[in-house]
Design a protein that fits this description.
- With about 400 residues, the protein is mainly β.
- It folds into three domains: about 120 residues, Neuraminidase, CATH 2.120.10; about 120 residues, no CATH class; about 100 residues, no CATH class.
- The chain is built from four helices and 25 strands.
- The strands form six sheets. Strands 10, 11, 12, 13 and 14 form a five-stranded antiparallel β-sheet that branches. Strands 1-25-24-23 form a four-stranded antiparallel β-sheet. A four-stranded antiparallel β-sheet has the order 2-3-4-5, with no helix packed on it.
- The N terminus is likely disordered.
């Protein structure tokens, strides 16, 4: 009896480059139309504190097993460039988004983007578009912050001891004051997860702010000629959104939890194409304050990848949902270590044209830092003895 190879479990992994004692973090992976894989990340002597940080990339040819030597694909000399993300649009153009940090504080970030039609060959993409993406949230930004931030934080204030209540209220007052400062509102919005394209032409670029500890979406309906901002996506410390669309058109954003316990993934929903969002709430997935990402497979199932702990980044896992993110009954670990034994974080996940799942993530051990790539099929992910 012949067993279909597509049904046989498959898993493989490798470091994209040897571990080194430079900071390598915040990767993103895409599949090119020719089947090549392209991964990017940022590298430098530090993070936002070092001025030599640039965006690097490596390519793995279709059906190949090795990654090319990393090369710089974006660099603002004298300033750190961080947190890149990419997408290939329906017109087969590659988009790269990343923030440049102006004064070594996240709050000073200004997001930039580049677009290329010539990227499916060795070497760096040839960028035909290279632009800043200045953001101008609407005039009701402060009103939204005042209203929704109170509602988002009130359950935690009610459950806190008096000292913590005072701290929460003071933080809320600080954020409301910042929401009235024009420069604070227009700077500091940074990407992390893949952009999402809906309706064949609307690009949703999920962004977050370390100053406000919440998120919003930059939206273009004309391939970057003009941009608008969504209303703020407000919660109790909800950052680095990853957006997936349900069959009925509803959008679901999953967030890293930067707020108080319980340490769970936060999520928010939109029913108007990403213009407005519900107050973020916690779901059942654990999160230690680290990046997450979700994606929709062609068969309708959703995958979610993140740290399956409430404390530390020593474990990394992939979950499967068969009901569009309402429940996540299946899980398999990509990394499983003791607390303090390395860090595995900031995952990026895609389904390739052949159905293979690819994940890249930051890989930090005593040997140094690299970006790890793993690939597997659904047969491996759904193996019965690994269900949780």
């Amino acid at each position: 009896m012949t067993v279909c190879m597509a049904m046989m479990p498959h898993f493989s992994s490798e470091l994209i480059f040897p571990a080194m004692h430079k900071h390598n973090h915040g990767s993103c992976i895409v599949e090119c139309p020719n089947g090549d894989l392209l991964a990017c990340w940022y590298r430098g002597a530090g993070e936002k504190s070092a001025d030599d940080v640039a965006i690097y990339a490596s390519r793995r040819k279709r059906d190949g097993k090795s990654w090319t030597e990393p090369i710089v694909i974006a660099d603002t000399p004298g300033f750190p460039d961080c947190n890149p993300c990419m997408i290939v649009d329906p017109r087969k153009r590659l988009w790269l988004f990343y923030p440049t940090i102006l004064d070594n504080h996240w709050e000073s970030a200004i997001t930039k983007y580049k677009v290329s039609r010539s990227y499916q060959r060795p070497g760096a993409p040839v960028w035909e578009v290279s632009e800043d993406l200045p953001l101008k949230p609407g005039p009701d930004f402060k009103e939204s912050v005042d209203r929704d931030l109170r509602n988002a934080w009130q359950p935690f204030i009610d459950a806190a001891d008096p000292a913590r209540q005072m701290m929460y209220r003071a933080e809320g007052a600080r954020l409301l004051e910042a929401a009235g400062v024009k420069l604070s509102v227009r700077l500091g919005w940074m990407p992390r997860a893949h952009p999402t394209i809906i309706e064949g032409h609307r690009i949703l670029l999920p962004l977050y702010s370390d100053l406000f500890d919440f998120s919003l979406v930059a939206i273009t309906d004309d391939w970057g000629a003009t941009w608008q901002c969504s209303a703020p996506m407000i919660g109790a410390g909800n950052v680095q959104p990853s957006i997936v669309q349900r069959k009925d058109g509803e959008l679901v954003a999953f967030f890293r939890n930067n707020g108080p316990p319980p340490n769970r993934v936060q999520q928010s929903e939109s029913r108007d194409g990403g213009l407005t969002w519900s107050i973020a709430h916690r779901n059942d997935l654990p999160n230690p304050g680290a990046g997450v990402e979700a994606t929709k497979l062609r068969d309708g199932r959703w995958l979610f990848v993140g740290n399956n702990t409430e404390d530390g980044r020593h474990n990394l896992a992939v979950w499967v949902s068969e009901d569009e993110g309402r429940t996540w009954p299946h899980m398999r670990q990509l990394e499983h270590h003791s607390l303090g034994d390395g860090g595995y974080s900031y995952p990026s996940i895609i389904e390739a044209s052949d159905g293979t799942i690819h994940v890249t993530y930051s890989h930090s051990t005593k040997a140094g830092e690299s970006i790890k790539h793993v690939e597997f099929n659904m047969a491996w992910l759904m193996a019965e003895n690994e269900r949780r």
